Description:
Helix content is 35%, strand content 14%. The protein has 12 helices and 12 strands.
Amino acid sequence: MKPKVFITGSIHTDALKLLEGIAEIKINPYSRVLSKSELISMVKEGVDALLVVDMEKIDGDVIEAAGSNLKIIARHGVGYDNVDVKEATRRGIYVTITRDILSETVADLTFGLILCLARRIHEGHLFVKTGLWRELNPNQFMGVDVNGKVLGIIGLGAIGTCVARRAKAFNMKVVYYDITRRRETEEKLDIEFKDLDTLLSISDYVSIHVPLTEETRGLIGKKEIDLMKRTAFLINTARGAVIDREALIDALVNRKITGAALDVYWIEPIPQDDPILKLENILLTPHIGSATIECRRKMAIAAAEEIARCLRGEKPINIVNPEVLEVVR
């Protein structure tokens, strides 16, 4: 009998074909994220692998419902804060991510947000589309330069490094903060390491690229935002909870910083009564960091290949819980 794989959302057909040749596939039938009860009901007959496409919470209850044959939880992405990694590890279950595949794509979006904030492209677009452009005014939508400005990158992992490369092409001075000093990358890209407080105080643009952990939750709060220039912009394409929500709202309302751009939120989708939606000095996108045809295909195939390796009895490549190897399986 073929092993069973449950996929929590739609993925590229090339990845589906790969899995269909080796397993019995069951896919979320709805075009939305499953509730916890729905997810449990769909895996309760037992599965050998979970391919987690969206931000469904894979907690102990879901893992328990999936049964004792569950061998791998493969994330279709690089974030895994929605997976109970400790519980998975305790049960001898691999947790994998699609490492490095989406870095360039997310960096493209990040830099697009930087350019939009600087030149107010999104504001100008709406101004023309809504019929408000009725006379020539050379002083409308005055922006600021990107060229020659300071970009502060918080988290110089794969995505942060890709953003740094783009910034250097725009003749920006790049500084970064990370819990690990990256001396080789500093030399290669001509960028500088700074402590977090210094980075915040000197940067014209601050871009966040850290995973959400207990250490990074609320990393950018009132104290940190108060260190930023009033002319600065804050960009977050990592995880919403890295920024303290109330501190950001206060900073934007009181113009402590000039503006912000978010692709990630504290609750997704963002509630329609969230006061952030009413702010004029913020640019919002609906968590589309990896949303290109090419990137999503590569991500889906990579996640499917991790499952295939595991079902063949091989060790997956991009394991986030290597300590699982010490667990008797």
